Amino acid sequence: MSEDVGAEGGVEGGAESGAAGVTVAELQKRLADFAAARDWGQYHTPKNLAAALSVEAGELVEIFQWLTPEESARIMAEPESAHRVTDEVADVLAYLLQFCTVLGVDPLAALAAKIERNERRFPVPGDAGE
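Now predict its structure.
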């Protein structure tokens, strides 16, 4: 399992607020400040951040690896498992936000554009314009 310190560094991002009332840009700034205070920015290359993101995503997958579909659907009902899932989701998101910062990608704009492309690429069956 990864440490809570996990993913560091990043600035910029969208203005949408999450459930905690924090924006993506605020989270990216906190990550950047955290990394800068520890002189970790030198390690935040796109390659290193992509690798770290992959490792953290793998740790999330590992939680579900041998669960049945039914067990995986109930994972958040058990406090210890829910905590593990939440921690890994946070690590994945932190590294993704840092990766976006380093490359100048606005994650919310990128996702919105991708959804629009997918809506055109995979129209709802029976909708006009198919």
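The chain has one domain: 24-121.
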